[in-house]
Design brief:
By secondary structure, the protein is of the alpha/beta class. The chain has three domains: 48-405, Glycoside hydrolase, family 3, N-terminal domain (TIM Barrel), CATH 3.20.20.300; 421-632, Rossmann fold, CATH 3.40.50.1700; 675-789, Immunoglobulin-like (Sandwich), CATH 2.60.40.10. Helix content is 30%, strand content 19%. The protein is built from 23 helices and 27 strands. Helix 8 (211-226) links the parallel strand 6 and strand 7 (237-243). The chain is globular and about 80 Å long. The N and C termini lie far apart (98 Å). This is Beta-glucosidase. Residues 709-778 form the Fibronectin type III-like domain. InterPro entries: Cellulose_Degrad_GH3 (IPR051915), Fn3-like (IPR026891), GH (IPR017853), Glyco_hydro_3_AS (IPR019800), Glyco_hydro_3_C (IPR002772), Glyco_hydro_3_C_sf (IPR036881), Glyco_hydro_3_N (IPR001764), Glyco_hydro_3_N_sf (IPR036962). It comes from Pedobacter steynii. Residues 1-24 form the signal peptide.
Length: 790
Amino acid sequence: MKKLSRIGLLFVALAITCYESGFAQKKPVYKDVKVPTALRIKDLLGRMSLEEKVGQVSVLLGWDMYSKDGSTVVVSDQFKKALATQHTGMLWATLRADPWTKKTLLTGLTPGLAAKATNAIQKYAIENSRLNIPILLAEECPHGHMAIGTTVFPTSIGQSSTWNPDLIQEMAAAIALEARLQGAHIGYGPVLDLAREPRWSRVEETYGEDPVLNSRMGEAMVKGFQGNGLKSGMNIAATLKHFTAYGVPEGGHNGGSVAVGTRELFQSYLPPFKAAVKAGAQSVMTAYNSIDGIPCSANYYLLTDVLRKQWGFNGFVVSDLGSISGLVSSHHVAANATEGAAMAINAGLDADLSGYGYGPALVDAFRKGQVAESVLDTAVARVLRIKFEMGLFENPYVDVLKAAKTVRNEAHVALAREVASASLVLLKNKGNTLPLSNKLKRIAVIGPNADNIYNQLGDYTAPQDENAVVTVLEGIKAQVGKGVQVDYVKGCAIRDTASAGIDEAVELAKNAEVAIVVLGGSSARDFKTEYLNTGAAQVKVTDAAVSDMESGEGFDRSTLDLMGRQMELLQRIVKTGTPVVLVLIKGRPLNLNWAADHVDAIVDAWYPGQEGGNAIADVLFGVYNPSGRLPISIPKSVGQLPVYYNLKKPANHSYVEVDDRPLYPFGYGLSYSTFEYSNLSIVVSGAQDNLLVKVKLNVKNTGERDGDEVTQLYLVDKVSSVVTPVKQLKKFKRFSLKSGAQKELEFELNAEDLKLFNPQMNWVLEPGDFTLMLGSSSDDVRLKGDFTVQ
């Protein structure tokens, strides 16, 4: 017995010695939460095979990665195969539902089922991959998470019409919460393209034509999405789109070539991205277009020199869908997929959205020596960092019950109404037609967008429960109550000219005290439209007979006229003599010349989201005093384009047929109140990087109603070493004033606000004279003053 005990003690001592010597099985460093992220990444990279690394930077399409049977959701065979053969580390649009994905209200996922799906995906990935790496899930989140049952806010062009970054940050936080609770980690958005070409199909996804307004909105979205940290369980990483100059394609052709010089790139198109990067954005998406002959998805100068070395970006870069393959098939700068993959990753493009731009092509490029191990490891590390910093290795799952309870809650719906109300722009109000009297007894509501839920929601919107969306007709009925007769006739379609009920609409208008005509456009996708593999619609001339869609990705225009028989409908209703209020629901500026001359009141609502009907009714009946301002100029003619306000000197001159001015300028918007500006003060102190220009003024509400004013500060550089804009927005403030109340405003300009990109391609503050202009729009200047920089 003693001998056996001694042998047992010997084995125990040997085991302890082996453990202390490191021979015993220990937790891998990358799984130890106490270890710094950089060391965890290094450890994990050292354990990964080439194929596993490539899998981490290949983003597969996600909506086929689950199978649903009633209330049961499991991973699909397609996901099992993808994990086994491609070692995939990221999915995109797993919860997306729309005609392209063929996910409907019946086949798609409610928030609770979505949480079950992402949990199932994570569980399978962790338990069935060699290194137990969780999946990173990216979702479309531009104006709400693009999934069934989420809150739908106004599209970005409407968001920027609020001129209220604080409100947009609050909205972004709500979107992030809804996405994160369902298992998403990355939100695609904000879109920071300057929209200076209104024929382009994606104007609705932008914040308009101005770099400063876009910058403030982009910062707000990033801060709202990302909050105080990605481990919160309430936030998602923002992906900035589309890097860069994507919004000014020649001829308005989506994804087409752009003609932008280097100085213009730095002074106008890059500042919104730089501001959002400085706000902490964790991801950037490349654009489809090329710049000066170099495709954005293979542009080392943009992706590495500018984005990382100059701006200090430390997140990861992802391609737009299929844009790496586009180096071969569209731009023809690569002979084959292997060359394309090498060009992209060597330029600094970390992740491939599609799964076929990298994949076997990147493996092949690596084995042929076209991609160095350090380059591949760097790209993989950038993706892994997000996973570690979100805490996915420790907590990859979400609470199903919390997702079902919280997504599209009452507070978020109320916020959607608030954002929609703040976004509405009053373009015309002849004789104070608005707000409408509460004594009206008979109202005619007419038009193709008066009672169509999908037409008011914009592109990148999932299928909707009809009870969740309030149309204009429903909003008006709810506003006036049962004592007022509200009659409705559609009148015509957006595009279809084959049939219409114009005669019936005219009779309705004749017998009404006011006609509210709701026209415009639509980005509502349908199951009859064919889509490219990028998700963009494939436009056919025959689509006019089957679809309202005249805007949204792929639907570029050659004119900006109202389509179909809408103008005929409007003209005949105006001819009845009944007062007419025109409400516009649309995704881009349209030709409003006739309406501006003949209609009593015009309200621009863009795509106002699920609460749009209530918001519009609130403005029409004076419950809400309109205060939105245009983030993009509305031209009189396509022949004027481009017509953005901050064009380079010299100033434009008139054409033979029409003057050079837009119909409605950037920053324009009326109110039911009036505001008076006075007592401008400009004080300059400091020099160069310590320069400070303090601007003070008084604004008084001289109207009978409480209201919001948006004071805009524009700057003119009188003499400069390079050509500068005729004027440039630098600061703005939206604020509320009671009737009769006065407020002192203060703005501060610093050196960064006054710098230009000089002939030597450096940002410098040049001495000289400047003019400050303050007012209610780019063309409505109330106060002006000069100052000098020594």
